[in-house]
Amino acid sequence: MQSPVDERRPQSFERVLSSMCTEPHPAARRAAERFLATNPGDPATYETIADLEREAVGALAEITGLADAEGAVESDVSSHGYVTTGGTESNVQAVRSARERADADDPVVVVPESAHFSFHKAASVLDVRLRTVPTDDDGRADADAVAAALDDDAALVVAVAGSTEYGRVDPIPAMADLAVDAGVPLHVDAAWGGFYLPFSGHDWDFGVDGVSTVTIDPHKVGRAAVPAGGLLARDRAALDALAVETPYLETTAQASLTGTRSGAGVASAVAALSALWPDGYREEYERADELAAWFADELRGRVDRVVDPELPLVAFDLAPGAFTALRELGWRLSRTGSGEARVVLMPHVTRESLAAFLDDLDEIR
Ligand SMILES: *Cc1c(COP(=O)(O)O)cnc(C)c1O
Question: Which atom of ligand 1 is least distant from the CA of 229?
Answer without folding.
Answer: 7
